[in-house]
TrEMBL record:
<keyword id="KW-0732">Signal</keyword>
<protein>
    <recommendedName>
        <fullName>Bifunctional inhibitor/plant lipid transfer protein/seed storage helical domain-containing protein</fullName>
    </recommendedName>
</protein>
<dbReference type="InterPro" id="IPR016140">
    <property type="entry name" value="Bifunc_inhib/LTP/seed_store"/>
</dbReference>
<feature type="signal peptide">
    <location>
        <begin position="1"/>
        <end position="28"/>
    </location>
</feature>
<dbReference type="InterPro" id="IPR036312">
    <property type="entry name" value="Bifun_inhib/LTP/seed_sf"/>
</dbReference>
<dbReference type="Pfam" id="PF14368">
    <property type="entry name" value="LTP_2"/>
</dbReference>
<feature type="domain" description="Bifunctional inhibitor/plant lipid transfer protein/seed storage helical">
    <location>
        <begin position="31"/>
        <end position="105"/>
    </location>
</feature>
<dbReference type="InterPro" id="IPR044741">
    <property type="entry name" value="NsLTP-like"/>
</dbReference>
Length: 113
C-alpha cells in the first residue's frame, strides 16, 4: 500500500498526465512533462498529511515543464484520496505556473485568491 501511495502522489500534480493507475504503478501518456520527476521531486509537497510547505527548486524545475491543464484532466478520485489538490495548486503557483481561476483539476476547482 505504501508503494502505491508513493507512486500516486505525484501529481499530481501536479502532477499526473494521461494517468493510468494499475497495480500500484503510474504511467503517463499524452501530456508534456516529466511525470516520474514529479513523483520523485514533488510528492512530499502535495500529500494530504502535513502542512503546506514551499517546494524545492528541483520540484519547481519539473513543475515548470508540465502541461498542467492536460494533467488536470486525468486526476482521478483515487489520486485525490492521496494528494491535496489545494497543495497541488499551491506548489504550481509557488513555482510560477499560472493556473486559471475556475479551472477544474480532478473534482477540485481552482479558487480565486
Amino acid at each position: 500500500m505504501a508503494v502505491f501511495k508513493t507512486h500516486c502522489i505525484a501529481l499530481a500534480v501536479l502532477v499526473v498526465a494521461g494517468i493510468v493507475i494499475s497495480g500500484g504503478r503510474v504511467s503517463a501518456q499524452g501530456c508534456q512533462g516529466d511525470l516520474q520527476g514529479l513523483i520523485s521531486q514533488c510528492s512530499q509537497y502535495v500529500q494530504k498529511s502535513g502542512a503546506k510547505t514551499p517546494p524545492s527548486q528541483p520540484c519547481c524545475t519539473v513543475v515548470k515543464a508540465v502541461n498542467i491543464p492536460c494533467v488536470c484532466q486525468y486526476i482521478t478520485k483515487q489520486v485525490e484520496q492521496i494528494i491535496s489538490m489545494e497543495k497541488v495548486v499551491y506548489v504550481a503557483q509557488y513555482c510560477g505556473k499560472t493556473i486559471p481561476h475556475g479551472m477544474k483539476c480532478g473534482s477540485y476547482t481552482v479558487p480565486k485568491e
